[in-house]
């Protein structure tokens, strides 16, 4: 009997007709972009067409019913669907008529009491003066794609808000510990997206995380509060950063789209959220997420953001935290506002005093300052090797690397890197250490980021770390004491570009200068989840209402919130006009009147570090001129990127008949607020780029051009004067660069148009390719 059964199974395998054959090939989630206009008339809906297409390429006629493979159907920002497919099935599906692209699922990473005032938009400014007219700010809805929200936090109180705008189409989805009552006039929408995650990573463990809009991580609550949190007096973290916490647009509405789970943020879920957010009616999207950089036509978030832009939605995305390495940016599409991070003028000073009497400055958010007496000194030890370029597990204080017999009762010097900063402190504590000095390596330079460590700990810069190590090596009995000094405002210099902030140039298109701008992203206080510790370590039992975080994840919602204010003031402005206003009014000097510095080097930063500069909302509301860009203009830009007609069609959801007109002679002619001149030929000659500016200031005005002198080229602007006779009038100009001596590295400068009141500044980068 057994032999007969085995023969039957073998025959079934050979005939590929029976489930008793070997298991089918593994499946993954793929995102399929289609030309919506190609739907055959035989199908009543796009979903039916998608299901039929999948069924036509599946490996067995006994497979699931039509449509069971479909994870999501996308219909608003673009046409397409996500489905679970085998590799060969995905390849076959790519040949089906009407299918434009089949892309594998991508996992994305998650990339305040002071920042509104630092940006010049305190409550007295918003309620009076230039911000008070225009569309009511409470009619603006900001969509936040993140880890969800903790609705009980007072940052989301709605007492002062009028009813939700009638145009809003969003919903409040219920689930684990989240009901419709958790939405209000501030949180006007809350949705969850997990089908893509579950298709790739398995079912969500509802005992470990909420399968609902509720935020168990804290990141989403923090970014949502930074965008549009209501005013909360007396907010702080362990007494640090004490004051009134408030978002950038405190009267704007928040719509939450939870797309991130314990295993990551999956692109199919992110795209479903963008698609739904646009349909719901958001005005701004704040997306503090990033993945790898591929071609525009292969970046699903880029495609979705294009569709959102075409519907009038401003999209802000974080630049990434891979700095100071060059070419480390994510989210580089020109229709996305790519935001880097900078410091504010607030810090949390702490100090290290060595037994030799020498004292060094650092920072800390340690919350139990009484546990280590500043009047006592403690033995000091470093278990690593020589210099910071040869790091090992002990110098990095990796889990399990420290010998309790050596560490107990001592302050331990640890290097930053590899493992989370707060985790290093826990490793020291577990080994019996009484304190930690966390020293930067060369990569981080002198940038100081404060953390709420579980033991007394002070972060210091790379040079200080080397000096302390030298003391430990040479002193017979090295000792140290740590002191914590609370909160200090008025730090100079500030702002400074954060070392971790990802840098340009734009690897896909050198002619589009990225990042676009920087905004506060270091030591930002905002709301926090009620079930997450401030360190996010499992052993940390502390719970706080507000937390202090750093990253471009924190700078992105600053721009999203300011964009909401600009949308309220100028409802007629396009997303490109809003971005132009933010970029051309950005500033480039710190509070010592010196050029913005790069925290990783201490030297002046460049446009590849800070983009157009640091945002200046009070100026952006009245920029004088804007560089406007339509969806057709962006499409013409894509036509310069050597994409095939099929690849271009993924950007044509709303205009299936759109074709390349070849209106741009090169990518550099995109009407971008920044200018990047790329000399691609040798010998380099003259390069001419074209721009159009729109007058959004006084009806009658005259602007004169001023341009930086460049080391390697002569620059000419034609005409040098622009005379406007009416509001919204458009005038064009040309800027030409004639090479005098090709330079081995990029040269930076600016073109500024001024009417005596407004200064409309466009950064310039010149590059000679070898």
Automatic annotation (TrEMBL):
Residue ranges of domain Peptidase S8/S53 in the record: 138-597
Superkingdom, natural source: Eukaryota
Signal peptide extent: 1-22
GO molecular function (one): serine-type endopeptidase activity
GO cellular component, one term: extracellular region
One Pfam family named in its UniProt record: fn3_6
PROSITE patterns with a match to the protein in the record: SUBTILASE, SUBTILASE_ASP
Keywords, comma-separated and alphabetical: Glycoprotein, Hydrolase, Protease, Secreted, Serine protease, Signal
Stretches assigned to the PA domain: 377-468
Active site per UniProt: 146, 219, 553
Subcellular location: Secreted
Boundaries of every Inhibitor I9 domain copy: 29-111
GO terms (BP aspect): proteolysis; system development
InterPro entries tied to this protein: PA_domain, Peptidase_S8/S53_dom, Peptidase_S8_Asp-AS, Peptidases_S8_3, S8pro/Inhibitor_I9, SBT, Subtilisin-like_FN3
Domain spans labelled Subtilisin-like protease fibronectin type-III: 669-765
Family: Belongs to the peptidase S8 family.
Protein name in UniProt: Uncharacterized protein
Organism per entry: Zingiber officinale (Ginger)
């Amino acid at each position: 009997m057994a032999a007969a059964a085995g023969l039957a199974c073998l025959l079934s395998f050979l005939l590929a007709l029976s489930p008793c054959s070997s298991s089918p090939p593994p499946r993954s989630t793929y995102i399929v972009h289609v030309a919506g206009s190609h739907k055959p008339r035989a199908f009543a809906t796009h979903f039916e067409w998608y299901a039929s297409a999948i069924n036509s390429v599946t490996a067995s006629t006994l497979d699931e019913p039509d449509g069971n493979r479909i994870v999501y159907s996308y219909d608003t920002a673009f046409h397409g669907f996500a489905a679970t497919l085998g590799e060969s099935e995905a390849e076959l599906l790519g040949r089906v008529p009407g299918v434009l692209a089949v892309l594998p699922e991508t996992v994305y990473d998650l990339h305040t009491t002071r920042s509104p005032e630092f940006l010049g938009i305190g409550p007295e400014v918003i309620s009076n003066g230039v911000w008070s007219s225009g569309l009511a700010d409470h009619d603006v809805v900001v969509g936040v794609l993140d880890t969800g929200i903790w609705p009980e936090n007072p940052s989301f109180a709605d007492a002062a808000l009028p009813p939700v705008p009638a145009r809003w189409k969003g919903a409040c989805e219920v689930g684990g510990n989240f009901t419709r009552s958790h939405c209000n006039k501030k949180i006007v929408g809350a949705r969850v997206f997990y089908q893509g995650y579950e298709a790739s990573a398995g079912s969500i463990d509802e005992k470990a995380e909420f399968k609902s809009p509720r935020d168990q991580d804290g990141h989403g609550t923090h970014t949502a509060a930074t965008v549009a949190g209501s005013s909360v007096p007396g907010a702080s973290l362990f007494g640090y950063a004490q004051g009134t916490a408030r978002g950038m647009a405190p009267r704007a509405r928040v719509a939450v789209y939870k797309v991130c789970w314990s295993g990551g943020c999956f692109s199919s879920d992110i795209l479903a959220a963008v698609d739904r957010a646009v349909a719901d009616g958001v005005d701004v999207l704040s997306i503090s997420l990033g993945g790898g950089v591929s071609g525009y036509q292969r970046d699903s978030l880029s495609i979705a953001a294009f569709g959102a832009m075409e519907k009038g939605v401003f999209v802000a995305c974080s630049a990434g935290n891979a700095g100071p390495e060059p070419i480390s940016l994510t989210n580089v599409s020109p229709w996305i506002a790519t935001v880097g991070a900078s410091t504010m003028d607030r810090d949390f000073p702490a100090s290290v005093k060595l037994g030799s009497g020498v004292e060094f400055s650092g920072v800390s958010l340690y919350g139990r300052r009484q546990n280590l007496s500043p009047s006592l000194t403690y033995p000091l030890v470093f278990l690593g090797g020589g210099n910071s370029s040869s790091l090992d597990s002990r110098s990095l204080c990796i889990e399990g690397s420290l010998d309790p017999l050596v560490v107990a009762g001592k302050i331990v010097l640890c290097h930053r890197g590899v493992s989370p900063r707060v985790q290093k402190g826990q490793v020291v504590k577990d080994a019996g250490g009484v304190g930690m000095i966390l020293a930067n390596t060369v990569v981080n330079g002198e940038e100081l980021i404060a953390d709420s460590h579980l033991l007394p700990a002070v972060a210091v810069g790379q040079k200080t770390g080397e000096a302390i190590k030298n003391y430990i090596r040479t002193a017979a009995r090295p000792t140290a004491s740590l002191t914590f000094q609370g909160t200090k405002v008025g730090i100079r210099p500030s702002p400074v570009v954060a070392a971790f902030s990802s840098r340009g140039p734009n690897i896909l298109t050198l002619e589009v200068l990225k990042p676009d701008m920087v905004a506060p992203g270091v030591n930002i206080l905002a709301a926090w989840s009620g079930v997450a510790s401030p360190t996010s370590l499992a052993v940390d039992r502390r719970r706080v209402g507000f937390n202090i975080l750093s990253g471009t994840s924190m700078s992105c919602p600053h721009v999203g919130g300011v964009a909401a204010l600009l949308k309220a003031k100028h409802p007629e402005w396009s997303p490109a006009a809003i971005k132009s206003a933010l970029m051309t009014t950005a500033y480039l000097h710190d509070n010592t009147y010196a050029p913005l510095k790069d925290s990783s080097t201490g030297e002046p930063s460049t446009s590849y570090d800070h983009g157009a500069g640091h945002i200046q909302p009070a100026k952006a509301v009245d920029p004088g001129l804007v560089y406007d860009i339509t969806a057709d203009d962006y499409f013409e830009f894509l036509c310069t990127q050597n994409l095939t007609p099929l690849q271009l069609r993924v950007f044509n959801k709303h205009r299936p008949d759109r074709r390349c007109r070849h209106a741009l002679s090169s990518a550099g002619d995109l009407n971008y607020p920044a200018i990047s001149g790329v000399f691609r030929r040798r010998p380099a000659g003259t390069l001419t780029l074209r721009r159009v500016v729109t007058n959004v200031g006084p009806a009658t005005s005259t602007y004169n051009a001023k341009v930086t002198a460049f080391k390697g080229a002569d620059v000419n602007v034609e005409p040098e004067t622009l005379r406007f006779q009416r509001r919204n009038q458009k005038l064009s100009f040309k800027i030409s660069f004639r090479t005098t001596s090709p330079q081995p590295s990029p040269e930076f400068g600016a073109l500024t148009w001024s009417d005596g009141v407004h200064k409309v500044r466009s950064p310039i980068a010149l590059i000679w390719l070898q």
